[in-house]
Design goal:
Elements lengths: L9 H21 L5 H33 L3 H26 L5 H32 L2 H21 L4 H21 L5 H40 L1
């Protein structure tokens, strides 16, 4: 069991997640249509980070927040946050269905970044500050411990997120393999056979020339013998 000094409270953990996803979304937005492999890899990582983040929020942090706050306005933030999660899921589904080499992908990546930015900003400026007022520091530390454990479980499982990424990467590999097949050079064996054929032709030519020369020499000797 971690000591109180090295434990991370729930809010610090969630803010760290926000920083990671923002950095990944920035990288994705800067990619071009030609960087298809990079886009697929980044999208897979973004999807995993978002799915794990929203899961630990919805299972652990949000229920604790809702139970702790008393004002109607504070409770309203809880419902809004859930709806924003749904929006992010919807945009993720659409971006995964689009061609990574298209402008549609670029546009949807930008929308996803805006959705996540808005959600993270609202949590950090409103919900988290209200949570700190409504909860004891020890309670936030305990929530942080529970969330970290759950996060590690989800990362170990990778169910439903990384397999999808694997399919995208497999599709990319298939495209590369198909391209190689169209312009694949001769195999070593084929090159060797062709080389032997080329070598055999001159050799046969030299053999015929030698035979002809031998014939001429024999004929000349016979003619000389008759004259004598």
């Amino acid at each position: 069991m971690p000591t109180q000094k090295n434990r991370t409270d729930a809010i610090a953990l969630l803010k760290d997640d926000h920083r990671k996803v923002r950095a990944l979304l920035d990288k994705l937005e800067k990619t071009t249509e030609r960087a298809s492999d990079t886009r697929e890899e980044l999208l897979a990582r973004i999807e995993q980070e978002i799915k794990i983040h929203t899961t630990i929020e919805e299972e652990i942090f949000y229920p604790a927040y809702k139970a702790a706050v008393t004002r109607k306005e504070d409770a309203k933030l809880y419902q809004e946050a859930l709806e924003e999660h749904h929006v992010a899921d919807f945009v993720l589904t659409e971006i995964k269905a689009s061609d990574v080499e298209s402008e549609v992908f670029s546009a949807k990546a930008k929308v996803l970044k805006e959705v996540v930015e808005h959600h993270a900003r609202e949590e950090e400026t409103e919900m988290f500050s209200r949570a700190r007022r409504a909860m004891e520091a020890s309670e936030l530390l305990e929530l942080g411990t529970q969330m970290l454990e759950r996060k590690r479980e989800l990362e170990a499982q990778n169910e439903g997120w990384l397999p999808a990424a694997g399919k995208m990467l497999a599709a990319a590999a298939s495209r590369v393999t198909a391209g190689i097949g169209k312009s694949r050079p001769q195999s070593v064996a084929a090159r060797g056979a062709a080389s032997k054929k080329r070598t055999a032709r001159p050799a046969a030519g030299r053999s015929r020339a030698k035979t002809a020369k031998t014939g001429k020499t024999s004929g000349a000797k016979s003619a000389k013998a008759r004259k004598k």
